[in-house]
Input
Amino acid sequence: MSITVENSSTYITALWEPVADEIEAVNLEVIGTIPTALNGRYFRNGPNPTPGEQVDHAWSAPGMLHGIRIADGRAQWYRNRWIRTSFLDHPIDNGQQADAKDLTNHNCNPGILHHGGKIFATADAGFPYEIGPELDTVGACDFGGRLHTPMNTHPKIDPVTGELHFIGATRTTTPYLTYHLLSPENNLIRSEVIDLPEPAQQHDMAITEHYVVFYDHSVLTDAAMKAYTTSPFSWSDTKQARIGVMPKGGTSAEVVWFPIEPTFVLHTANAHEDAQGRVVVEVNRVTRENWDLGFARLGGAAPTTGALDMRNPVPESYLHRWVLDPKTRTVVSSRQLDERAIEFPTINNDHVGRDHRYVYSIAYPRHDARDTSYSIVKYDVTTGNNQELSFADTAVPGEADFAASPEGSGEDEGWLISLIHPTNGDPAELWIMDATDIGGTPTARIKLPRRVPYGFHANWIPDSDL
Ligand SMILES: [Fe+2]
Output
């Protein structure tokens, strides 16, 4: 990649190599036609050390947002901005710290979402930061002083009630986990401590119509690791991994814990209840081997076995489904749904917590060379008739977010939007694809004025939601 290395970090290089400045450009060139029904913003968060800053793990660098504004059939602007956290100027520990000392002081680099008319950048280690529609940082948000724990990166918004469910985890002080509920208007209306014996890493969770789902899995936070340059997580071979299912409105005592095979759940695809009232949880499951390889790619300790294949920039994981029966308290089934190494599972958000047919994901080369391409995958989890858009080794797609068509009602009627990163270091493009057929010619390709570092999560923010 023909990029000047501004930052000499061991791992934040190549695809992840940071940009050194904030820019903006207007009236972007478009190949194809942007649907006039598509009005909103695509915001993407990711780690971007400041020039000269040393970080050795992608999870530890300050967050930068890249945003593209789409309206009236035009790509009106692109801009990028560091999130103005207190961590940006005064980094402490490792950016993943969550000791309730100063919950504004964290990296804020993985998540981005919108709820109740506001946009929030999220991380597991502290308060969310409110972001303005022009990508400016409004400030840390503790919901009127009511939140006293971090907010996890991936809360879940119930599409029927409009409520937002989230968790807050700390790693050196108890309680290790607290469940919270926000009203549709962003009022914090409930907080419930969930008893955990150890501080498992907490990044995601799930909801169904009647339940909240927690992961008490094989990766623990390590209170002893406080160096800024490392990330404080480690795999435990002795811990019994579990999935917890709590009735909405319930308490910690009502959580049914289901033992599962050694697992780290970084991301939920979705969960729902089937006709028998069983809880179906679909995630991208990280195994021990995947953890060793993938965590090393992001900057963790080098694997003890196997080659470190840097073509896959994220932890390798596979789409997996558990069926759990709260009545009999048994794991009905556990099944890997596909062999692809995926990350960033997304769905039509109108189906969060309800039955879904389609899961969108990014697939990466597998360490065992079973797959060597980057692609966007559209899983049909009902028929198994999956569709793939391959970029071979020429470009790496970022999280593909689904934007529903205002004229459609089908689950996949709308567009898939993804930031495409050429592997030769050329400027990025934002692709808008017909979600009913992702393999066709993209509906529109928006040409950005610069290379964009690879990053974590994205969010399509329709104007109608702000
Ligand atoms: Fe995430």
